[in-house]
Amino acid sequence: MRAMDVTPIIDPLNERQREAVTAPPGPLLVLAGAGSGKTRVLVHRIAWLVAAEGVSPLSILAVTFTNKAAGEMRARIEQMLGGPAGGMWVGTFHGLAHRLLRQHWQEAQLPQTFQILDSEDQKRLVRRVLKSLEMDEARWQPGHVQGFINARKEEGRRPRHIEDGGDPVRRQLVRIYTAYEAACRRGGLVDFAELLLRAHELLRDNESLLRHYRERFRHVLVDEFQDTNTLQYAWLRLLAGEHHRLFAVGDDDQSIYSWRGARVDNLQHFVRDFPGTLTVRLEQNYRSTGTILTAANALIENNAGRMGKELWTDGEDGEPIQLFSAFNEYEEAEFVVDRMRQLNRDGYARREMAVLYRSNAQSRVFEECLVAAGMPYRVYGGLRFFERAEIKDALAYVRLVRNPDDDSSFERVVNLPARGLGNRTLEQLRAAARDNQVSLRQAAGSLLGAGALPPRAAGALQGFLALLEDMAVEMGEQALHHQIDVVIRRSGLMEHYPQKEKGEKGEARVENLRELVSAARTFEGVEESAEMPLIDQFLAHAALEAGDAQGDEWDDCVQLMTLHSAKGLEFPVVFLSGLEDGLFPHKRALDDPSGLEEERRLCYVGMTRAMRALYVTHAESRRLYGSETLTLPSRFISELPVDCLHQVRPRGGLLPRAQSAPAPEENDGQALRLGERVSHARFGEGVVLNYEGSGAQARVQVNFEQAGSKWLVIGYANLQRC
């Protein structure tokens, strides 16, 4: 191995990368900034150990967070070494833990044929455990219980390690956790969190086995170290042992996953727990322009307790960051789409442009504008707005109110949220509908009338049918957005999702439901036809919207994604949208110093995805989650250097195309301006949002304070300036 030529290993590296790759064995922490080549350093370090230090591949363990990253790492290592890296362990934390448990199933006290539970399987098992304990799912939501169990395992705690502190709820959760563990033991089942916990306990409690693996894996390397949780770090420390040959690559400025257990302070603990640690900073960026890096550095400097680094590039400064102050979210989206079309004409492929946002609910308006522009797009790592489960659930209720014989919608929501209708009852219902050639709703009425159901099931089913009738009455002839609001509120979905899925996921579903109300309010501007009521038009719109505009992964289409999804990616052009206090940074972080710092890191991640051009947008008012609010620009904008920014237009001005609404004859011959206040005899005062057409038949969109958004024909509206 020592005879191998190491020139290809070190020649492509800059000075700091080379320092990290060729460092002597021992604890090494590589603080790798965005776009600084961290994966390259990890791969070249492994190749250096084998080629220059004569280390056997058998003694190397490399850990990362995704199977894709692990596969790419292995492929690059083998390419550098010119052949298979036989015997080297390269994989994810879960994959390597699984491999360990398969080899030592007896010592781990597992059956040889133990099976892995995925997330859905785990939830089903939790549900069975709750049933066996005769605990009501309506109160003890399976998703919440699942989250509690996984969080405790990631902390390394079994039921016996948890104190309830006199809290009866916590006491019951520990009881469920205990019964869940017993069920897993009986069935030979292992969930994802258990893989890591069991592997950690296996090594911790078997001295000879621990000694064997410490001797075998003389070099442990880990990528994305800032994303490790408590248990993962404990596992790494255990393996590194007294030889301390742990090579960790991470970036405290890109730690954005605390909500799923990641501990940014593991980076500080590394230096404390491994005396003599050599710290190498990778600060030369190979991705972004100098202006983008200057602004990103200035932003992240506002975080306290950083380990410190400053990105730089020997490339060009590039263009200033474009700052656009929109009147509302529609003007923001229209500006973004207009710029994309221009950039596309200038030679940028659509796939080279990305829109990043803090909340999934923001995608809806961008999707609408992209569809209207005929511009294909792809929602990265997610679904289009009207394809999301919570939106389909809410609309299924609406469809069922509109059409009681809609069996598909009936099946979807009859037990959502759970109301005590078991599979046996539902199968009886299906059989009655099938045998009598009637809808499920009609079959339900027949079974209830005949007294053919057990009392509990009959009560639950009767309650569901009564709920639908009450919804229909309350919806009545109200405005569309009010009808949607009635369904969301009365159905119980708003309470269901946060209980089912704790944390950001459940909260995001609630935000999307509120955004559905906003979508309905905006849709009220569509003229109602005699053939189809507005609510039915809206349901058809939901089913058809975006249709073929959603591109496949390899199509040339615009990329839409949350900031969390964007980590690890890069694009020539990035539109960072919705920078308003309360949205980004998120409202729950405004009074939480640690939460605000994570939001700032998230903004830093978003900015450093941009290679050549970065646009930052915000709106002065935004209708989101069902209500319209006046917003303040994000504090993060004020933290960017003024000389790095170019204001695309003054606040309160016109769109770049200098559009204005056609002038009604009564209003002194002057065109209405976007953002101008007007009054209407019936709807009261409002603000001009948009217009289309020309002359007396032109239409203008006005957002009225009381009536919401309306499209009006200029020739008949008789709008007056306020």
Notable traits:
single chain; alpha/beta; Rossmann fold; Arc Repressor Mutant, subunit A; 5 domains; about 45% helix; about 15% strand; flat
Could you explain the architecture of this structure?
The protein is α/β, with parallel strands linked by helices and 722 residues long. The protein has five domains: 7-103 and 197-284, Rossmann fold; 115-187, Arc Repressor Mutant, subunit A; 300-384 and 546-647, Rossmann fold (3-Layer(aba) Sandwich), CATH 3.40.50.300; 388-526, PCRA, domain 4; 677-721. The chain has 28 helices and 22 strands. Strands 11-12-10-13-14-9-17 form a seven-stranded parallel sheet.
CATH class of the largest domain: Alpha Beta
Helix content range: 40-55%
How would you write the strand order of the largest sheet? Answer: 11-12-10-13-14-9-17
Mean pLDDT: 87
CATH topology of the largest domain: Rossmann fold
Q: Can you tell me the overall shape? A: flat
In the predicted model, the low-confidence regions spanning at least 5 consecutive residues are 650-669
Q: Any guess at the CATH architecture of the largest domain? A: 3-Layer(aba) Sandwich
Tally of separate domains: 5
Q: How far apart, in Å, are the first and last alpha carbons?
A: 83 Å
Give the C-alpha Rg. 29 Å
Strand content: 5-15%
Please identify the structural class as seen in this structure: alpha/beta
